[in-house]
Amino acid sequence: MLLCLDVGNTHILGGVFDGDNLVARFRYATNLIGTADQFGIFLVNILQTNHIVPTDISATAVSSVVPGCDYTIRHTISLYIKSAYFMLQAGVKTGLNIKYKNPNEVGADRIANAIGAVNAFPQKNLIIIDMGTATTLDAITKKRDYLGGAILPGMRLGMESLRTNTAKLMEVDIETPSTYIGRTTRESIQAGLYYGQFGALKEIINGMKREMFHDEPALIIGTGGFAQLFREKSLFDVILPDLVLQGLSRAYDYHVQQDAR
């Protein structure tokens, strides 16, 4: 079995694969990771809750955008899982052609998403929208060329910025508003966050299609915690909530194949 961990700014998304099947999925708050013992006890408990014996984990694949957690994660795996360890990072061969000016700048989560997407939809132009702490857009050609993308504040980050930097605006639940025009301050913030993000994404998608794909068809993939809020808006062709885990699994398989050559 393969344990996959995507370490994000807000949550650690985890999953366990038995072959190609995702048999367990969980989240853990990144700011609560604590020591290797604390996170290790959580991992052992969550695996056992899902009827998985920790010794059945043969390898662990990790992507991380939080360098401060990397040592703790690795130490946790060595102490409590005792499996082979693979980190998706700059310099690791992935089967993608990274066209970024500085490939080392591309976040591991974005690479994992791209790997998952090109394996799910081979020979298609792709735009991946990951809606988490930040909202990222990534463009990949049918030839597996990773062209680059865009990054903007996520919905929760926008809400926290309003709350922190204004005197009278409050924290609100992030949800789909019923109207464009709020009739209370709370409803107004919700409408602004939701439709502001929606409008920005539509504009960037259209621009990417023109600039990167020359108006050729491109499949729009949604992932991340807030993607589900836009399910009824025809923004995405498909929503894949486990895309980053699927990508990590594929990246590990590719790594093993390269080592075997």
Automatic annotation (TrEMBL):
GO CC, any one term: cytoplasm
Listed Pfam families: Pan_kinase
Keywords in alphabetical order: ATP-binding, Coenzyme A biosynthesis, Cytoplasm, Kinase, Metal-binding, Nucleotide-binding, Potassium, Transferase
Cofactor annotation: NH4(+); K(+)
Subcellular location field: Cytoplasm
Keyword Ion transport on entry: no
InterPro entries from the UniProt entry: ATPase_NBD, Type_III_PanK
Active site: D109 (proton acceptor)
Details of cofactor binding: A monovalent cation. Ammonium or potassium.
Gene Ontology terms for molecular function: ATP binding; metal ion binding; pantothenate kinase activity
Residues holding K(+): D130
Transmembrane regions: none
Residues that bind ATP: D6, V7, G8, N9, T10, H11, I12, L13, T133
Pathway in which this enzyme or protein is active: Cofactor biosynthesis; coenzyme A biosynthesis; CoA from (R)-pantothenate: step 1/5
HAMAP family: Pantothen_kinase_3
Quaternary assembly: Homodimer.
NCBIfam families documented for this protein: baf, PRK13321.1
Role played: Catalyzes the phosphorylation of pantothenate (Pan), the first step in CoA biosynthesis.
Protein name, as recorded: Type III pantothenate kinase
